[in-house]
Structure prediction request, 381 residues.
Amino acid sequence: MDFEPTDEQRMIRDLARDFAEGEIAPIAAAIDETGEFPYATVKKMGEIGLLGLTTSADYGGVGADMVSYVLAIEEISKVCASHGVIMSVQNSLVNYGIEKFGTPEQKQRFLVPLATGQAIGAYSLTEPQSGSDAANMRTTAVRDGDDYVINGRKSWVTSGPVADFIVTFVTADPKAGHGATMAVMVETDRPGFARGKTEPKLGIRASATCELVFEDYRIPVANRLGDVGGGFKFAMTILDKGRIGIASQALGISQAAYEASRTYARERRAFGQAIAGFQAIQFMLADMATRIDAARLLTLRAALTADRGDRFTLEAAMAKLYASETAGWVTDKAVQVHGGMGYSKEVPVERFYRDARITQIYEGTSEIQRLVIARNVLKPA
Ligand code: COS
Prediction:
């Protein structure tokens, strides 16, 4: 396996790095403080292609491969994990789903504005009673002539408060399990749709998250993505790609926390020398660097497997599990290296520590990743 980026992959990584350092870095601390959604920089991300990075050029995207995508999300997340998840959700959970399961007409209507950043997208699977047990959904879609009438509540929808289009999973019969599920494209300007309160969160505070409420919400049958009964597999297929995005986000947070710790350790003096001279600090930095490299290799392997066109469920779960737990560990140690300063909002490691926590929860908890991995490794040969 060749992990050396090609010229094109480097170019996309550098584009993302320059954008993150030039446009996002100046606002990252402030939007964490206010929890404000960064409309202006998200719009610019769309203009330079980052919101349609892996979408094919036929639908307004860049048509880049997954390795480029991983490198770009890491760069964005190093500076701001909120922008990282906005980019990941739009590319993986929204655009990819429409490109893979949508009709040509749906691609023109929904994918083109999403891939060019003229529209913001979201993905809605979770409900108040069903997070990990994703098939246990109760939001119903009842056919009425050429329409579906949707009723129910969805929760924890990333970009929900600002989305124009939401890939939403519903069921024709809540008692029928996987077999009655389907995906529909919700257009948020139709009557019967409301957004609940925006969640006040511990981290990724500039990424907006909310509940959705459907009361006799009507959409044409033409808004169904894929088949009736195919919703669960649709949700799982695109989550595999989403998990590579979250692994990359976790990697970016880890890398930023590590670099800040290394700089601080060289500058901060105690007992007559820079604290980088103490073995206690050196070992923390050594373990951070090693774990981050391992997480990066797993994430690149998942991306390369996807780029080869092979199934990557196992590789994505391993990458997401390891990179997210690494982000938790690395950011904890980063606070430790900084001592009292690490607990202060004066330095960014405090934000990295809070931002890292969600990566072990959303798009499948660490426990769900272990379950997916265990099912794969225990499969009869
Ligand atoms: N890709 C394609 N198909 C998949 C798949 C994947 N990654 N995972 C499961 N499927 C298919 C299975 O092959 C099975 O198909 P058949 O009925 O044809 O055999 C079907 O989907 C049902 O799969 P399974 O029996 O494994 O479903 P479970 O209800 O046991 O659920 C877990 C499996 C727990 C792994 C799944 O519900 C899950 O990932 N939950 C977490 C959801 C999540 O990430 N939520 C966060 C939302 S985004 S913030």
Notes: The pocket of coenzyme a persulfide is lined by residues 125-126, 131-132, 134-135, 156, 178, 232-233, 236-237, 239-240, 313, 362-364, 368, 371-372 (CB under 6 Å). The chain has a mean pLDDT of 97. The CA atoms of residues 149 and 218 lie 5 Å apart.
